[in-house]
Amino acid sequence: MSTQIDAYAAVREKLSPGANIYGENSEDFGRAALRWSQYKSPNFIVVVEVATEGDVIETIKYANANQIPFLAYSGGHGAIAGLDNVQKGIQISLVKLDSVEISETGTTATFGGGVLSKRAIDALWKAGKQTVTGSCEVTSLLGPGLGGGYGLLQGKYGLISDQFVSARIVLADGTVKNVSSESNDPDLWWALQGAGHNFGIVMSVTMKIYDVPKDDIWSFESYVYPQDKVEGLYERINTLWPDGSQPSSVINTSVLMHNPGIDAEKPILAFIVVQNGCQPVESIYTKPFRDLGSILTQSGSGAYTDIPGWMELDEKSPVTMKLGLSGIRFPVNVQNYNLQAQREVYELFAKETSEIPELRNSFIMCKGYPVHGVKSVPSESTAFAHRDDNILIAPVITYDNKDNDPELDAKANEFGEKLRQIIFAASG
Predict the structure, then answer these.
(1) Residue 219 DSSP SS3
(2) Same domain, 252 and 388
């Protein structure tokens, strides 16, 4: 197998002038390889920041010829345990491939494979356009998108992948394919819409885009509740929006977390309702949650681009930053909230984060995004497996393990699995 020096020299001479390559001893190596989660992270001898499709092809060909594993990188928020199967590999960083080109018709846009959500949103917004992206500003567009991709506009338009018109992809052998619904590879096109991370490196994707409505306005109202409001909160959500029936203009999200500024001991529940097309949020959607009795209530209005900040998912939020922490996700999709399970989850979360303070930065996000647009697409038409589900409950076990303590990793995994099993067992 090639050494770092061999790989560096051999790949460098094949790259375009705009590309960068960093060895392990480079000042920029750590920055270029840094991930949102350090748990089970891959190991690289070289990072290649590609600037062209040719850079990707040449890097893949070299890696294959020398039996070196390689992994594509865009936003760096992927956190599946299997990533650590890549050892002494080459990272192919797509961060320079961040172009956004709107078509002459204004109905589609082509995005580079490494473009981040905020860059995509802002570029479209300047042109009076929008499309479905992830709600977190700092993830890539295609990181969530190739897995289907939940988004704030999904109630109207469907998932991120439902917007795909075509894609240009470099396969594992270095060959290039253009795929679409009209191409001669329908299986690959089907797979890219929900399982796309597994089939190649996407150089670019063309997606449907939409006009931002005239005088478009978004409003929110947010609440913070103590532990005795768990059942009351989720009962109200079930009553207002049973079985995914909320309008496409309404979004709700709750987060179970610690906030010592509000409660030094017990976890709190933060809940937000966001509505498009009115100012303020209609009382039918706020009165039940006001009547529940919150510790803190806030409200406001603004543009679509303000929503990540309201949800604390913007680029300034600590939750989204690459801080050298470990983050393990344990997602479960459900139809409605089970009140007993939500209580059990709260009690377990409070107990474990008290007994294991290293896990105190963990949180559980419950996403109640509208699903009309998602369910309008036939399930069998894409690889996305969760069109029939209404709510995503996602425990995220977050902790500092720079010392690589295997016992702490084991405790974090055990905690997350316990939470997931409570939710799953009650999901029916």
Answers:
(1) strand
(2) yes
The 10 Å Cβ neighbour count of residue 26 is 15
d(CA 77, CA 380): 28
pLDDT in tens, 15-32: 999 999 999 989 999 999
What type of residue sits at position 250? V
Domain count, the chain: 3
220-229 pLDDT, tens digit per residue, is: 999 999 999 9
How far, in Å, CA of 71 to CA of 53, rounded? Answer: 15
pTM metric for this prediction:
0.96
Q: What is the mean pLDDT of residues 131-157?
A: 97
Q: Please check whether residues 286 and 409 belong to one and the same domain.
A: yes
Owning domain of residue 131: 100-211
Residue 342: CATH number of its domain: 3.40.462.20
Q: Is the pLDDT of residue 323 over 70?
A: yes
pLDDT class for 141, splitting at 50, 70, 90? very high
pLDDT on residue 8: 76
Q: Clarify whether residues 84 and 131 are in a common domain.
A: no
> Residue 307 gets which letter from DSSP?
H
pLDDT of residue 215: 95
Rounded Cα–Cα distance for residues 69 and 85 (Å): 9
Q: 357-391 b/e with 16+ CB inside 10 Å = b?
A: ebbbbbbbbbbbbbbbbbbebeeeebbbebbebbb
Give the CATH number for residue 75: 3.30.465.10
Closest to 194 measured CA to CA, from 137, 256, 150: 150
